UniProtKB/TrEMBL annotation:
Chain segments annotated as transmembrane: 6-25
Residue ranges, compositional bias (Basic and acidic residues): 36-57
Ranges where the record places region Disordered: 35-57
Stated name of the protein: Uncharacterized protein
Source organism of the structure: Methanolobus vulcani
Keywords assigned by UniProt, alphabetized: Membrane, Transmembrane, Transmembrane helix
Length: 57
């Protein structure tokens, strides 16, 4: 009975580890996607500013 209980605890810990890993990977991917969007917006703003400056000259 003790061996069975230890095996069940091991399986539960493994499942919890896998779920936490998946959650943190998902949140990391989401943060990377958001940061790339911010960088794209900054680049497009810089391009818009340079176009405005070119049109003024």
């Amino acid at each position: 009975m003790d061996t069975l209980f230890a095996i069940l605890i091991g399986i539960a810990l493994f499942v919890a580890f896998v779920l936490f890993t998946a959650y943190f990977m998902k949140s990391t991917l989401y943060m990377n996607k958001q940061s790339s969007r911010v960088e794209e917006n900054k680049e497009s703003e810089n391009n818009d500013d340079s176009l405005k400056n070119d049109n003024r000259n």
